[in-house]
Design goal:
The chain has 1349 residues and is mainly alpha-helical. It starts with 9 loop residues before the first helix and ends with a helix. The longest helix is centred in the N-terminal third of the chain and has 25 residues. The strands form four sheets. A seven-stranded parallel β-sheet has the order 3-4-2-5-10-1-11. Strands 12, 13, 14, 15, 16, 17 and 18 form a seven-stranded parallel β-sheet that branches. InterPro entries: DEAD/DEAH_box_helicase_dom, P-loop_NTPase, SecA. One of its GO terms (biological process) is protein targeting. This is DEAD/DEAH-box helicase domain-containing protein.
Length: 1349
């Protein structure tokens, strides 16, 4: 709505009247009663008059701000009413509150319009003078106001001389000083002052706007920031300088005024600088013109820190500019023209060219560059730019491994040789250039007694000699020669190496390369000055075995190996204590190079005696001795990583020794020494020469295996021995069973077996420490009904059965049944042996790691043995995950064979006919269903038969049954492709008749006849889906409760149009219907409570369920004390940045003491670019460059990732980011050395409470410690779980599907039958529940029989 302009002076007049009203003593008494902050209102009104004057002197008309005028009028009117009337109604009080809050906003608005930058400078000066500490926020606000509101139009006010540019620049220069000095106070004025990313971005924005808005003086700004840098730099100054170095305006200013800035740089570099400031300044030095740049370098090169910073930044700039100039796509994305990028690249290259040219004349500078400046961070870029400047002479050199280094290019005479033009243009330039380089990597480096001309003459003769011999046929021999000279860098003088190269070239045509190498190696060893270096260089190059070709005396070889590596000497001494020798012929192979080289740089630990250090080294030598060519490649390319793993393994072996020494301090010292020696022997035997693992496999598993050897509570072994010292042999039997590497084991299988050692020790301890009476008491507290009596009646039967079938249990490495396992099996036996008495289902609560898999196997075995003559399958075991089904089947396969029970694991490649030939099937729902879908599709398309198992007399065993039932609504129906006849390939499928033509016309008529207008309704449904999809209104993906994402199929009409094929749901399958079809259901779960069973009652025909809660074998847990809620009651952050910042802080606070498992939501919410999972992943990867640099980041989003990483999650150095897929059934073992256990970080609440409980269950397992914290974006709000019932609608469609596939027994395929069936399947699902109830199942089956089959 338009406003009319008010008369001149009205606003000021009303303000004056309001001031009078609020200054009257009588009025104040009345107003104090209703205006709590009266003083503040009075202050604003008094200031408002001054602000109006400032506002109008800028040429603005305050009365034109009619909204402000009207507000003031109304406010004055209400105040007068209040003063004149003693009673106040609610309406007036609300109105006063509104106007009181509006007055400061009007004041602020007028202030922003009226003030100048000059006045802001004055206000900042006053606030600094009055109280800097108290005025931080106000100063920060004024600084922001200056840039955002005052520059360029409100710098000063002077009607007589409004555009004095000199005055403006002086005011701005003063503002520059305040901006740089008090920039940190901007943080005080930000909404999220603790969010560092926001702060950095705000500083970047403000500085960019300040410098890019005229008028400005870039050089004056630089002087101000220079002064701050040299005197009192802080974090904010570092940020400003960092972004200043990227600003094009400063680049131009430096280029145009290079002499001035050169002097600034000289002055700055004379004082100590922070690393960040040094880096940013180094960036700016490359904007100088070439001559001032070189002059600057001449002045500052004696300071290694400055030299290195400028050099490092130059390399970064070169690589960056080279990449931009070379990549036209990046030119577009970076908004830089190809010419601009090329120019920037050439400028950096020119500066390096002049720099290298200057340095090449100065040996001291070359040495400084080579020895102090070049490192692994700049070496690749150095190689790149040297190649760019000097061409093939450098590009032909390979610095991809640690044996050579680009720094050797700066050996004085080699660097000088780059300027010898006579050495260019040669056939075999690659080989010749490499030989030149390796000749110059000599022991005397820059101390050659040659003049430059003599040096050039020697190389010219070498070139002639090389050219006379080299040809394509002997290039391989030349390359082998090069590799050997590369191997022995820095061995011998330049002349020695030059002469040997000449000699080797002469012999290439008549001697084999091994003989030439041996000759050169012998000459090197004859020098008698660098023996140790030569042996280590050979080892470093994976060639230690060449010694055998040079030294005939094998004893001498061993003595030299011992002399040059004191740790290998310890290995030999330890072997002597075991009466074992070192076999030169078999053990001194190329793979021996790895441990020999790595151990040579380790110092024997003075805290241990010679024997213990010998044990350390013996294990390390065994683990790291490999032999394949692939191992050579891995070693040469990854020495740094392998060295780190070598050192970590060394620490693991130390922990093993320390562990047994500490454990054996009491009465059982001899026992623990025997345990230690047994462990060591198993390690040495396991990594013996007969086990040909690759280096990658060994380094991946060795540390985990050794850690597993001590990942149990030694106190439990001491308690076992206290009960009976004769149990020592049982402990040793466990060690031998789970430490020994079997011939069939690869390293990963061995690791998996050793990971079971801890559980076995726990089982043995619990069996001997706790008695049956202990279990009985625990059980009775949890189960107050008649369950205990049942156990007493059947316990002996279970024990006798165990003794009778001990061989079967020994195949599972089970020597004892825990008391809780015996109790559970007694209850199961009673239930199965009294079928007429025990109607209803059986549900047992038993935790993971408590023998649940054994209970399931024993249940299945007893069912099958009781029903040998029944049809197959007799038992179905359904698990939550495919990998659990596979694992349990593999673990118990030998056990079942003992009882002649035919079992199978249902994989994606299984066949339905296998189901009918087995007694028992292990499967997860998704995989089982996929097999049915696959074979059903093959039946329709290819004519292959499908044989569905008859399960009406089968028993269903459900592992984690509550989750299987509650998650059943997340089982999806999937489409398959079918060929259809399309007459016109250009058909748009936007008419009903287009779709009708795909099917049998008579069949459509019959469908409509039996189910009125069913086809038309289906068509409308298809059309609606297409329209929504075209408008992008149709949901494309869905995520289940485990975090698995499924893509919805394209609408049928769009799919037909694009692919000329149709896709249909041909096999509809409902899990609840499937469960309800079994004769009997037995469920196991670690989280179910009896009170929740009522939710499942209707699913199992309202029969009474039998429920028992089995206590753990180690006694009742103290979960409340063991599992700590670290940030109770949790934190909720709606703002995304605050949410991520809190997560980062939580990780920072926990990672030093605990491994961390982070549950993150992988579902990308609407209008978000990334899911929480993706954002948290970025935080972790970024933190790996800082405080998490020594931590492994593990990601788990799939079942395969669980199986691959489950053993790593509980390690101290791991941080795991996972979806809730790991929230169920994952038995995470945390290293015993971690006192606080695993820390969970839950970053969202799942839909249902049972999933949340399962997520929490990943920590504080098996009566151990653990903790969790909750940092989420939304409050907890779980979906209420309704009673689980079988949908009559789903039941009919499920049973119709089964009926069709059981009845379609013709051995040939019939496309007409296939299309009729898929169409009928689609049509029937178009009906709603009320409609489908009008048809009996028999009627629908008859329709299928008559019209389809």
């Amino acid at each position: 709505m338009a406003h009319t302009t008010a008369s001149l002076g009205k606003t000021a007049h009303i303000v004056r009247e309001l001031n009078n009203l609020f200054s009257n003593t009588t009025n104040i008494i009345q107003l104090e009663k209703i205006i709590p902050n009266l003083g503040l209102v009075q202050s604003f009104l008094s200031k408002l008059h001054c602000i109006i004057n400032i506002y109008e002197r800028q040429g603005h008309k305050i009365d034109q701000q009619t909204d402000c005028l009207e507000q003031l009028k109304e406010f004055k009117k209400i105040i007068e009413e209040i003063i004149n009337r003693p009673t106040h109604d609610f309406r007036r009080l609300v109105a006063i509150g509104h106007y009181v809050s509006a007055i400061p906003q009007s004041y602020k608005l007028l202030l922003e319009f009226g003030q100048t930058l000059e006045e802001i400078n004055e206000m900042i000066a006053r606030k600094v003078e009055n109280s800097l500490t108290e005025n931080k926020k106000e100063i920060g606000t004024l600084i922001v106001l200056g840039i955002d509101k005052k520059i360029p139009n409100n710098i000063y006010f002077d009607t007589a001389n409004p555009n004095d540019n000199g005055r403006k620049l002086k005011i701005i220069e003063t503002y520059y000083g305040y901006f740089i000095e008090y920039i940190l106070y901007i943080r005080e004025s930000l909404d999220m002052m603790l969010n560092d990313n926001n702060y950095r971005l705000e500083l970047k924005r403000l500085q960019s706007k300040l410098l890019e808005t005229e008028p400005s003086d870039i050089e004056k700004y630089f002087v101000k920031i220079k002064s701050k840098m040299m005197n009192n730099p802080g974090y904010s100054t570092e940020i400003l300088l960092e972004y200043l170095a990227e600003n094009i305006r400063i680049h131009i200013s430096i280029s145009n005024n290079s002499i001035i800035y050169y002097k600034h740089f000289i002055e700055i570099f004379q004082v100590p600088l922070k690393a960040k400031c040094m880096e940013s300044l180094s960036n700016l030095t490359f904007k100088l013109n070439t001559t001032p740049f070189l002059d600057l370098f001449k002045e500052v090169n004696k300071d290694n820190l400055v030299f290195k910073s400028i050099y490092d930044k130059g390399i970064q700039l070169y690589l960056s500019e080279y990449g931009i100039a070379s990549n036209s796509q990046e030119n577009v994305s970076n908004n830089r023209s190809s010419a601009t990028a090329k120019d920037a690249y050439e400028q950096v290259k020119t500066k390096f060219k002049s720099l290298f040219s200057f340095i090449s004349t100065d040996k001291t500078l070359l040495n400084q560059l080579r020895d102090l400046i070049i490192d692994e961070n700049n070496s690749i870029g150095t190689h790149f730019i040297l190649g760019d400047i000097y061409g093939l002479r450098i590009r032909n050199l390979d610095f991809s491994d640690e044996d050579t280094d680009v720094k050797y290019c700066f050996n004085y005479h080699f660097f000088k040789s780059l300027s010898y033009p006579k050495l260019d243009d040669i056939n075999g330039s690659s080989e010749f250039n490499q030989l030149l380089f390796y000749i110059h990597t000599c022991a005397d480096k820059d101390a050659l007694k040659f003049t430059d001309s003599a040096h050039e003459a020697h190389l010219w003769k070498l070139k002639q000699h090389f050219s006379s011999v080299y040809n394509h046929d002997n290039s391989t021999s030349f390359n082998a020669l090069i590799e050997f000279f590369k191997m022995l860098i820095n061995i011998g003088t330049f002349k020695f190496r030059l002469d040997r190269v000449k000699l080797a070239i002469s012999k290439l045509e008549k001697d084999d390369i091994i003989k030439i190498k041996a000759t050169f190696l012998k000459d090197c060893l004859d020098l008698n000055t660098q023996g140790r270096e030569i042996y280590l260089q050979l080892a470093r190059s994976f060639s230690i075995d060449l010694i055998k070709h040079v030294i005939i005396d094998r004893t001498k070889i061993i003595n030299k190996l011992r002399e040059y590596n004191s740790n290998f000497n310890l290995v030999i001494k330890y072997r002597e204590t075991l009466n074992a020798s070192f076999d030169i012929e078999t053990e001194l192979n190329s793979g021996f190079s790895i441990p020999y080289y790595l151990s040579a740089i380790l110092t024997a630990d003075p805290n241990y005696n010679e024997e213990i250090n010998g044990i350390f080294m013996s294990i390390l030598f065994k683990v790291f001795t490999c032999s394949s060519e692939n191992d050579k490649e891995v070693f040469l390319k990854n020495k740094k990583d392998i060295r780190q793993e070598f050192n970590k393994l060394h620490e693991s072996v130390k922990r093993l020794i320390v562990y047994y020494d500490a454990s054996g301090n009491g009465n059982y010292r001899d026992h623990y020494k025997q345990f230690r020696d047994t462990s060591i022997q198993h390690i040495l035997d396991g990594f013996s020469e007969k086990n040909q693992d690759s280096l990658s496999e060994r380094k991946e598993c060795a540390r985990a295996i050794i850690d597993n050897f001590i990942n149990y509570n030694s106190k439990k072994i001491s308690q076992i021995l206290e009960i009976n010292q004769d149990l020592k042999d049982e402990v040793l039997n466990i060690f031998n069973a789970f430490m020994k590497r079997k011939d069939s084991y690869n390293s990963e299988a061995w690791r998996k077996n050793t990971s079971k050692l801890r559980d076995q020790i726990d089982y043995l301890h619990a069996y001997h420490r706790y008695k049956e009476k202990d279990f009985d008491e625990w059980f009775k507290r949890l189960n107050p009904d008649q369950g205990y009596k049942i156990i007493l009646e059947n316990r002996e039967t279970i024990k006798q059965d165990f003794l009778i079938h001990h061989e079967a249990f020994e195949s599972l490495q089970i020597k004892y049944l825990q008391h809780n396992q015996t109790g559970a099996l007694a209850l199961i036996h009673d239930y199965l042996s009294k079928p007429t008495e025990k109607n209803g289902s059986l549900f047992i609560k038993i935790g993971t790691g408590q023998g649940k898999s054994l209970a399931i196997a024993e249940t299945a075995r007893r069912i099958i043995e009781n029903n040998r003559n029944a049809t197959n399958p007799k038992v179905f075991v359904i698990t939550c995950y495919d990998h659990l089904a596979k694992r349990d089947h593999e673990n118990y396969e030998k056990y079942y064979k003992h009882f002649d029970i035919r079992t199978m694991y249902c994989s994606s490649s299984s066949l339905t006919e296998e189901f009918c030939s087995k007694d028992m099937i292990y499967a997860d729902l998704e995989t089982y269903f996929s097999v049915l879908r696959k074979e059903g599709h093959n039946r329709l398309v290819n004519g292959t038969l499908i044989k569905l198992p008859d399960i009406k007399n089968t028993v269903l065993i459900m592992d984690e049954f509550d989750s299987l039932i509650l998650d059943s609504d997340e089982i999806r129906q999937y489409v398959h492709n079918f060929d259809v006849h399309i007459e016109n390939p250009n058909t748009k499928f936007d008419r009903q008749e287009d779709v009708e033509k795909l099917f049998d016309k008579e069949f459509i008529i019959e469908c409509n006849k039996n189910f009125p207008k069913i086809f038309e309704r289906w068509w409308k449904d298809l059309l609606e889906k297409k329209i929504k999809e075209d408008k992008n209104e149709r949901q494309k993906t869905v995520q289940d409760s485990l975090g698995k994402t499924t893509n919805f199929a394209t609408s049928l009409l769009n799919y037909l149009k694009k692919n000329k094929k149709a896709h249909f749901v041909h096999y509809y399958w409902d899990p609840l219907v499937f469960y309800s079809q079994f004769k009997q259901v037995i469920g196991f779960s670690g989280s179910i409570e009896e009170k929740h069973l009522s939710k499942f009652q209707q699913l199992f025909n309202n029969e009474r369920s039998h429920y028992y809660d089995i206590p753990p074998f180690f006694g009742e847990t103290n979960l409340k004390n063991n599992r700590t809620f670290s940030n109770d009651p949790g934190k909720v952050y709606e703002n995304s940045q605050d949410f991520l910042y809190a997560i980062k802080n939580e990780i920072r606070g926990k990672y030093k003491e605990q491994p961390i498992l982070i549950f993150a939501d992988s579902w990308k919410k609407q209008n978000e670019d990334e899911s929480d999972y993706e954002q948290i992943r970025k935080i972790l990867l970024e933190a790996q460059g800082t405080f998490l640099k020594d931590r492994k980041i593990i990601e788990i989003q799939t079942e395969d990732a669980i199986a691959e990483n489950i053993h790593k999650i509980g390690k101290f150095d791991s941080i795991t980011l996972a979806t809730r897929i790991i929230g169920r059934g994952a038995d995470i073992k945390v290293d015993k050395s971690i006192k606080k256990g695993l820390h969970l970080l839950l970053t969202y609440y799942p839909p249902r409470e049972n999933i949340f409980i399962q997520m929490l269950g990943r920590t504080a397992r098996q009566d151990e410690k653990g903790s969790y914290s909750i940092i989420v974006r939304k409050d907890k709000k779980f979906v209420e779980v309704a009673d689980v019932v079988v949908s009559p609608y789903n039941k009919i469609i499920h049973e119709l599907t089964e009926y069709f596939y059981r009845s379609y027994t013709s051995p040939s395929n019939n496309s007409n039958v296939a299309l009729k069936w898929v169409l009928f399947s689609e049509l029937i699902r178009t009906m709603n529940s009320a409609e489908i109830k009008n048809y009996k199942l028999e009627q629908l089956q008859e329709f299928i029989k008559r019209n389809i089959l």
